[in-house]
Design goal:
The protein is α+β, with helices and mostly antiparallel strands. The chain contains 9 helices and 28 strands. Strand 10, helix 3 and strand 11 form a beta-alpha-beta unit. Helix 2 runs parallel beside helix 3. The longest helix is centred in the middle third of the chain and has 14 residues.
Length: 439
């Protein structure tokens, strides 16, 4: 009966007995060979060793090219003989899919309701979609979360799936290394060889809960009191980093869902109007060198305005320019989502607009859910801009230096937001070298 082995694992083989007494000097002369069933005898380059118990042994691992093969391992003194061997069945690895959830920081809007929204949505994913997933990993950026908040986050995840690996990361590089190698330092590629269960683990689904900017995952985004971006560049993933991802880390039918804002949008415009026509003109006179534009839905309207301006002596029209659709202006086929889909040849789902996390705590009066609310002290938390949130924060916890949490995770999922104005609010599917498709 053959023994089963897994590719890439090291096994120790020992000579069970000899047909005659041998001195240690003779034992040191023992060589080793192997052959596939039906194949030619191959010789190992190095001899074995004598272990502490005096056994003649050799450490052997099996290459992936031997997957599914029956192999004879033969120690010998003169000539190898398959009849004096151990028979090994090299197992064929099983491709297994990992679910990877990435949770960003919340420094941009540290309010009563917003502070723990990324964590809450991650917990909801585990609860709703992956309670029985064998390979489930959560990567989280810890910035500005207290140890108490992180502890509650981990406890909630493990309550719904106690097999989850929860890993703290603080840089983009650690995230990339984990995606590529299943380790955060790339010291070994655990996606390349089977694990102890004979599974080769590839990413099947990746979901991102984080802040985002057009064509950027801003895992470390924050704002001070004035509206100037504070962004931890070591925690940002943008289009320049896409080539660092290894396609081999993903299953053939892998999917990525980004719930970061505007991942499918490559424009920083705050609003979009179109299709139509812009007429550029001098609102005062040409000598002022001051120009402005006026939008018209039809070419005929634009032409009338243009002609009217050019019929006078003071104001002059300069040109008529066609304005494409808001979708075309957003340039989704130049976005981060499209680059990822092209590079990895996977499906990418995301929005062109900002993501809306407002339903995170929208409990619809569910008394069972409401009974489990918790509140954590947070000196960084500040007064929400929305007056309704302000009242809720104060009445619920006695002040806005508290943040809300529920060990059941978010009540409702992330949905499309309303800005930038003019863009479609659909979830879009991006695939390799194809125009994004509204879902």
């Amino acid at each position: 009966m053959s023994k089963e082995v897994i590719i890439g694992k090291e096994y120790v083989f020992s000579v069970a007995e000899f047909n005659k007494d041998l001195s240690n000097a003779d034992k040191e002369k023992v060589e080793w060979a192997w052959k596939k069933e039906g194949g030619e005898i191959q010789y190992f380059e190095k001899q074995g060793y004598i272990d502490d118990q005096g056994n003649v042994s050799k450490k052997i691992s099996f290459d992936k090219n031997l997957a599914g093969e029956k192999v004879y391992v033969m120690p010998f003194l003169e000539e190898p003989d398959p009849s004096v061997s151990v028979i090994i069945q090299v197992l064929t690895p099983v491709l297994a899919k990992e679910i990877l959830l990435i949770t960003g920081t919340e420094k941009e809007s540290e309010t009563f309701g917003n502070k723990l929204m990324f964590m809450a949505q991650t917990v909801r994913e585990v609860k709703v979609n992956y309670p029985d997933q064998k390979y489930l990993t959560v990567l989280y950026y810890p910035d500005d979360y207290s140890s108490e908040q992180i502890g509650a986050f981990k406890e909630a995840i493990l309550n719904f799936n106690d097999k989850t690996d929860i890993i703290e990361i603080d840089t983009r590089q650690k995230m990339i290394d984990y995606i590529n190698t299943k380790t955060i330092d790339a010291s070994i590629n655990d996606r390349e060889l089977p694990n102890d269960d004979n599974d080769i683990v590839q990413i099947g689904t990746l979901k991102i809960f984080s802040h985002g900017m057009p064509s950027r995952f801003t895992f470390g985004l924050g704002w001070p009191i004035v509206p100037v971006e504070i962004n931890n560049v070591d925690q940002e993933f943008n289009k320049t980093h896409v080539p660092l991802l290894q396609k081999e880390a993903f299953a053939a039918d892998a999917e990525l869902y980004s719930f970061a804002c505007r991942s499918g949008n490559n424009s920083t415009a705050r609003s979009f109007v179109g299709p139509g026509y812009n007429v550029e003109y001098y609102p005062i006179n040409p000598r002022s060198l001051i120009t402005t534009t006026k939008f018209f839905e039809t070419r005929a309207e634009a032409q009338r305005f243009y002609d009217d301006k050019n019929s006078g002596l003071i104001a002059k029209a300069i040109r008529i320019e066609e304005v494409p659709t808001p979708f075309e202006q957003a340039k989704p086929q130049e976005s981060l989502a499209q680059d990822i889909a092209n590079h990895l040849d996977i499906k990418v789902y995301t929005y062109l607009v900002r993501s809306n996390y407002a339903d995170t705590w929208k409990d619809n009066g569910d008394e069972i859910y409401k009974a489990q609310y918790e509140y954590y002290e947070d000196e960084d938390a500040h007064n929400p801009l929305n007056p309704k949130d302000w009242v809720r924060a104060y009445r619920s916890s006695g002040g806005w230096d508290e943040v809300i949490w529920n060990p059941q995770g978010a009540y409702g999922p992330v949905k499309a937001g309303y800005t930038p104005d003019g863009l479609p609010r659909n979830l879009y599917l991006f695939t390799k070298d194809a125009e994004p498709v509204a879902q």
